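Supplementary Methods. Inverse-folding protocol.

Structures were first reduced to a C-alpha cell string of length 383. This string, shown here, constituted the complete conditioning input.
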C-alpha cells in the first residue's frame, strides 16, 4: 500500500471539497491525529479505516489509488529541512499534468522564449558578469526597454511559456522551486504564504527564472541542499532583471532631493522590489553604511526598528544572500498587496475547456484547487 499516494490523493480530494482536516476526521469517524498522519503519508491505514474515509467523503476507494507522477528534473532547495517536501513535489506534479492536459486538449500552447538563451549562457563563465548579462538578455527577449519596470511578473512569465504556480506553505525557509522543460515545464512555483512579503514573491519568481536560465545542469530532485554559488548568481540575476542598472541609477538620481528613507521607498515601489534589494544595490557601489543609515533614519521617523533577524545589517557588498529579500510582510515598509502578483493562464484554460465541454465543472474546480461552490461562483461571474 503506497502511503504517499493515498495521502496526496486525500489532500487533493479534501481541498477540492473545501474541507478542513478536522471536518474530514469528523465525517469519517476517526481522530484528527490519525487522519493527519494518513494524509501526510506517515502511517499506513487499515482497510477498514480507508473504507470509513471513502464513505465519509463520498468517494470511491480507487480514487485514493490514482498514480502520482514523480518529478525528476526539478530544482527544489530550501534553507531548512522540510517534512512536506514530498507532498509539495506531488502537488506540483499533478498541477503540471493538469496544465499540460488542458494545453493539449485545447491546442493552446505558449512557446518557451528563453530556450536559446539558456543554451547560450551555458558557455559563459559563472559569476557576476554572467548573472548581469543573463538579466539583460532576458529583458531583451521580452522586448523590455532598459528603463522599463516589470509591473506584472506573473503575466510576463506566463506569456513567455513558463507555467506559474502560487503555493502556500507555512515556511520561512522555502520560497520557491522550478521545473525544467524536460519534466513538463518550464515552470516556476512560488511560496505565497501570507507572512511572506509580496516583494519576496516577485523576487522569488525572478530568482527561479535565473535558475532556469543559468543552472539547468543542477535540476535533480535528489538534491536538496543549497549551492550558495548558484544562489548568489540567481539572486544577482533577479536583482538586475527586476531593476536594470541604468534604470536604477536614473530613478535614484531623480530622487536626489528627497530624504534617504523616501528615496529608498520610492525606488522600491517603482521596481516592486524589497527595500533591501535597493540597499544592496547601493552597497554594491562600495558604501556598506547604507544599511545602518537606513535603519537609523527609519527608526527616527517611525520609532520602529526594522527586524534584521533574517538578514544581518552588515551584509558584505559582494554577497547576495538567500535571505536578502525581506521575508515577513511586517518587516517590509510600504509593502505591496497580493493583487500585485496574480497568475491567470491556468484559469483561462479552465474556462475555455469548460465552455468547449472538454472538462466538467467539478474537474475545473479540482484543477484550480477550488471547492465546487467557489467554482460555481466564479463561473457565474464570467462575462
Amino acid at each position: 500500500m503506497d502511503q504517499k499516494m493515498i495521502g496526496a490523493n486525500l489532500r487533493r480530494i479534501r481541498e477540492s471539497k473545501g474541507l478542513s482536516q478536522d471536518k474530514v476526521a469528523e465525517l469519517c469517524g476517526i481522530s484528527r491525529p490519525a487522519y493527519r498522519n494518513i494524509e501526510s503519508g506517515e502511517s499506513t491505514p487499515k482497510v477498514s479505516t480507508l473504507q470509513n474515509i471513502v464513505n465519509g467523503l463520498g468517494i470511491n476507494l480507487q480514487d485514493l489509488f490514482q498514480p502520482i507522477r514523480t518529478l525528476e528534473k526539478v530544482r527544489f532547495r530550501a534553507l531548512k529541512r522540510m517534512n512536506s517536501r514530498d507532498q509539495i513535489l506531488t502537488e506540483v506534479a499533478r498541477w503540471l499534468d493538469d496544465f499540460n492536459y488542458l494545453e493539449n486538449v485545447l491546442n493552446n500552447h505558449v512557446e518557451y522564449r528563453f530556450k536559446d538563451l539558456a543554451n547560450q549562457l551555458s558557455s559563459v563563465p559563472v559569476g557576476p558578469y554572467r548573472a548581469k548579462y543573463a538579466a539583460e538578455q532576458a529583458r531583451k527577449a521580452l522586448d523590455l526597454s532598459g528603463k522599463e519596470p516589470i509591473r506584472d511578473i506573473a503575466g510576463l512569465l506566463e506569456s513567455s511559456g513558463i507555467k506559474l504556480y502560487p503555493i502556500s506553505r507555512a515556511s520561512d525557509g522555502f520560497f520557491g522551486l522550478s521545473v525544467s522543460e524536460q519534466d513538463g515545464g518550464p515552470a516556476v512555483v512560488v511560496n505565497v504564504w501570507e507572512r511572506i512579503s509580496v516583494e519576496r514573491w516577485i523576487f522569488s519568481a525572478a530568482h527561479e527564472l535565473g535558475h532556469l536560465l543559468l543552472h539547468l545542469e543542477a535540476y535533480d530532485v535528489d538534491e536538496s541542499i543549497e549551492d550558495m554559488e548558484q544562489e548568489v548568481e540567481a539572486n544577482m540575476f533577479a536583482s538586475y532583471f527586476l531593476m536594470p542598472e541604468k534604470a536604477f541609477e536614473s530613478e535614484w538620481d531623480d530622487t536626489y532631493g528627497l530624504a534617504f528613507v523616501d528615496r529608498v521607498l520610492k525606488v522600491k515601489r517603482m521596481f516592486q522590489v524589497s527595500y533591501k534589494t535597493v540597499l544592496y544595490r547601493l552597497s554594491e557601489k562600495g558604501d556598506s553604511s547604507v544599511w545602518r543609515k537606513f535603519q537609523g533614519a527609519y527608526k527616527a521617523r517611525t520609532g520602529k526598528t526594522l527586524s534584521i533577524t533574517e538578514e544581518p545589517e552588515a551584509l558584505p557588498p559582494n554577497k547576495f544572500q538567500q535571505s536578502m529579500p525581506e521575508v515577513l510582510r511586517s518587516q517590509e515598509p510600504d509593502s505591496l498587496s497580493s493583487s500585485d502578483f496574480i497568475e491567470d493562464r491556468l484559469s483561462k484554460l479552465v474556462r475555455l475547456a469548460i465552455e468547449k465541454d472538454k472538462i466538467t465543472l467539478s474537474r475545473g474546480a479540482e484543477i484550480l484547487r477550488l471547492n465546487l461552490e467557489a467554482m460555481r461562483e466564479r463561473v457565474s461571474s464570467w462575462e
